[in-house]
Amino acid sequence: MVNLKIDGKEISVEEGTTILEAARQNGIDIPTLCFLKDINEVGDCRMCIVEVEGRRGFATSCIQKVEEGMNVSTTSNAVIEARKTVLDLILSNHHRDCLTCNRNGNCELQAIAEKLHVDNVQFEGEKTQKPIDDKSPSIVRDANKCILCRRCVSTCKKVQEIGAIDCVNRGFESCISTSYDSSLNDVNCTFCGQCIEACPTAALREKENIQDVWRKIRDKEAYVVVQTAPAVRVALGEEFGMPIGTNVTGKMVTALKRIGFDKVFDTNTGADLTIMEEANEFIERLKNNGVLPMITSCSPGWVRFAEQNFPENMEHLSSCKSPHQMFGAIIKSYFAEKYNVPKEKICTVSVMPCVAKKYECTRPEMEVDGIRDVDYVITTRELAKMIKQANINFVDLEDTNFDQPMGEASGAGAIFGTTGGVMEAAVRTAVDTLEGKSIDKVEYKEVRGEKGIKEAVLNVAGKEIKIAVASGLANARKIMEQIKEGKSPYHFIEIMACPGGCVMGGGQPIKNSKTRATVDVAQLRKNAIYTIDEKSTIRKSHENPVMKQLYEEFLEKPGSHIAHKYLHVSK
Q1: Residues 38 and 97 in one domain
Q2: Is 177 a catalytic residue?
């Protein structure tokens, strides 16, 4: 242990701790901009500078390790004035349209300016003038709001191992860009959106579809159906000041109905449908010497990554569409027919934790007979904005249920929202099917947890089935390299583009760097997801009566010709 003083407070911390960490552990706040724990610890922005007694100049607290007897001041006049100068220089080349900015109220630069009471900018001068890159269906890049913190670069390189963006040029011309300054749409970006979550300002943001959805809702000729992903309900409340991981399902449904959607359905039901088809596809491959390992294809960021980097491995991917695309196709066919709603008038809107879903719904194969499965995707953040625009007091809303006839979902559908959830849900159905009976075991905790790659061996009906779960594209790369080399020992693999799964998707509420460093956001949201599953009366997809009715009345059986028409893609 190392003993030191920070702002007169005697503290003791482990050797190797930085001054910033030591301060935070003891309730002392030091502002940061470029710092992102375990991802971007480079000390570039100088916002976290402190004074150390007996030393010349300032110490950068995010990289300076504590030493025995050190006496640190975080709030001396010299430190405060130096931070203001650093901030002034950053603001001098920043487009300060805060009132109309996408991140107004949730911007780390804005928060520091308020904390340091910056009411004017001393070093006004020339500003960067860059065109906005909005060609991608998922992500907008605005270099005019970039502060060169490089958090997005480190996230793309170190966490996802993609490297679609980097810092280019020198001096005043320095900027975060792509190869040859191309659009994100035209480089190896997977649209996972983790860069948005890392960005402290609005230099990176989702491409919004809020106004498109409002127009449809106000169109009296349109029949607008909305569906919500499992991860949305355990994060939406955070946008209204509720604790991280609060399950707001009932309030969310009430808000959607008040906004004016004609029907409010649950994507968890679509997840059950995905399991029916995906478990069947896996069993067919297993029994008939099909291509193994089979890999899930619910994450569009992961699918784009596979297409760009491992085209030779694409036959390993399941042909199943993702839950919201399947559900969109069913809404415009089975639901439309059953309830006599012209499918041409139906507009399907998906509320997703993922910006890559915006890209997914535009893919050419996501339609049946010229009718798009899903018309618009909005993120958790966009739904929060719509609720605020409608002047709805979200926190005080009463709970209501999803609409019938497709409002019932199993606990298996709920756990799609976290890494390992798709695999666990699929295994629940696959094991029952292979054993020919209902198995008491419901929870497969072998595939749960934070580990980037999780493995398990299941003994099912006399067969040994090896499964794996990969979270984040860096881990996906390891799995795919193994398959490419012909060394994969697995039969079935789940891959999610975002570390932690959908609960940490690129469209979820953005947390500042301090929260990310001190609170396990992923675990709190996951706990809520698993609680939904535990409290469900139905915990296996194939036991959902909605599935039974859907196959009896329309789809016939998993893997049927009509199921393939609406629920699968051709390869």
Answers
A1: no
A2: no
In a domain, 216, yes or no: no
Residues 198 and 229 in one domain: no
CA distance 159 to 183: 21
Q: Is residue 85 part of a domain?
A: no
Half-sphere exposure of 218 (CA within 13 A, CB side): 7
Convert the pLDDT of each residue in 141-173 to its tens digit: 999 999 999 999 999 999 999 999 999 998 888
Please check whether residues 306 and 399 belong to one and the same domain: yes
Which residue in the list 45, 146, 354, 502 is annotated as catalytic? 502
Cα–Cα distances (Å) from 549 to 317, 410, 520, in that order, read 28, 14, 40
Catalytic choice (263, 357, 514, 540): 357
Residue 206 catalytic?
no
Active site residue 145: no
- Under 8 Å between Cβ of 151 and 204: no
Q: Where are the alpha helices (DSSP H) in 239-370?
A: 249-259, 267-287, 300-309, 323-330, 336-338, 356-360
Answer yes or no: 357 catalytic.
yes
497-533 confidence digits (pLDDT tens): 999 999 999 999 999 999 999 999 999 999 999 999 9
pLDDT at 124: 80
Range of the domain at 416: 222-567
Query: Within a 10 A sphere around the Cβ of 329, how many other Cβ atoms?
Result: 25
| One domain for residues 182 and 301 | no
Active site residue 278: yes
Task: Flag whether the pTM goes above 0.90.
Answer: yes
Catalytic residue among 298, 347, 354, 361: 298
Is there a single domain that holds both residue 56 and residue 105? no
Same domain, 352 and 296: yes
Question: For residue 363, which of 373, 353, 354 has the smallest C-alpha distance?
Answer: 373
Q: Are residues 367 and 516 in the same domain?
A: yes
CATH label of the domain that carries residue 50? 3.10.20.740
Q: For the chain, which residues score pLDDT lower than 70?
A: 571
Catalytic residue among 197, 239, 281, 424: 281
Catalytic status, residue 281: yes
Name the active-site residue from 136, 154, 299, 318: 318
- SS3 label, residue 479: helix
Contacts of 180 (CB under 8 A, 6+ apart): none
Which of 136, 171, 206 marks a domain boundary? Answer: 206
Summary mean pLDDT of the chain: 96
From 197, 278, 382, 494, active-site residue:
278
Is there a catalytic annotation at residue 108?
Answer: no
Q: What is the largest CA-CA distance in the chain?
A: 80
Structural domain tally of the chain? 3
| Residue 48 annotated as catalytic | no
- How does 213-228 read in b/e, with b if 16+ C-beta sit within 10 Å? beebbeeeeebbbbbb
Helix, coil or strand: residue 11: strand
Strand order from edge to edge, sheet including 71-73: 9-13, 2-6, 71-73, 49-52, 59-60
